[in-house]
Design goal:
Blueprint (H helix, E strand, L loop, with lengths): L1 H34 L4 E8 L2 E2 L10 E2 L3 E8 L1 E3 L3 E10 L14 E9 L4 E2 L4 E5 L5 E8 L4 E15 L4 E17 L6 H27 L1
Parallel strand pairs: 5-12
Antiparallel strand pairs: 1-4, 2-3, 4-6, 6-10, 7-9, 7-11, 8-10, 11-12
Length: 216
């Protein structure tokens, strides 16, 4: 009878050890998915000094220097979390800018448009880029619903038209953006954290139970 009881205890201990490993893998997978960094995609453009190609006919709206434009965004975002769209504009250091005529500021207009996802701040952002100054603009996107979302980032230089008495935007770049909002098991990140911690707790509990049964 003792041998039969011992065999049963050994079998039960093995079952508990196997279950503990299953929950350990479940917990580590859940927490690892949360910790895995989201890859970022980016594109770069060179904006040469001089009259802009998109300027209206007969106008001399120009880029006041040679600029490097970079637009970056996350390729995917976890549901319930946030991602960042970033636009940077820097003046090329290895090229001579145009003579400092009306170099008070280059007016830059940037607007990301991504249907289906909230963006903060909303709408178009305007900034004045002084000589030798770098521009770094960011927008926060909220992963409120899963799916694939397509959009664009519009970058333009602005020029004041005295005749029209308004700021005229001249496009310098239009970037296509694709962002996927994904979830694990159809739940947001907060529940995934809870699942991961519960998995680790069950692993520890089952492992200890198996050890207790094994030594008896």
């Amino acid at each position: 009878m003792k041998r039969v009881s011992k065999n049963r205890s050994g079998w039960l201990a093995q079952v508990l050890f196997i279950l503990s490993l299953v929950f350990l893998g479940f917990g580590l997978f859940s927490l690892g998915w949360l910790a895995w960094p989201s890859p970022t995609e980016s594109v770069q453009f060179a904006i040469p000094a001089g009259v802009l190609a998109g300027a209206p006919a007969g106008e001399t709206f120009a880029s006041l220097a040679d600029y490097n434009l970079t637009v970056s965004w996350p390729t995917w975002v976890r549901a319930g979390e946030e991602g960042v769209i970033r636009v940077t504009l820097t003046e090329s250091a290895d090229l001579e800018p145009l003579p400092a005529v009306n170099r008070e500021a280059q007016v830059v207009l940037v607007e990301p448009a991504l249907a289906g996802l909230p963006i903060r701040p909303p709408g178009r952002m305007q900034a004045n880029l002084a000589e030798k100054q770098d521009l770094n603009l960011t927008w926060v996107i909220e992963g409120v619903v899963t799916g694939e979302f397509l959009g664009k980032v519009f970058v333009a230089f602005g020029f004041y038209d005295q005749t029209l008495n308004e700021l005229v935007p001249v496009p310098v770049a239009v970037v296509d953006v694709s962002i996927r909002v994904t979830s694990l098991w159809g739940v947001d990140s907060g529940l995934v954290v809870w699942f991961g911690l519960v998995g680790l707790a069950l692993w520890g509990g089952l492992f200890l139970m198996g050890r207790v049964i094994q030594v008896r």
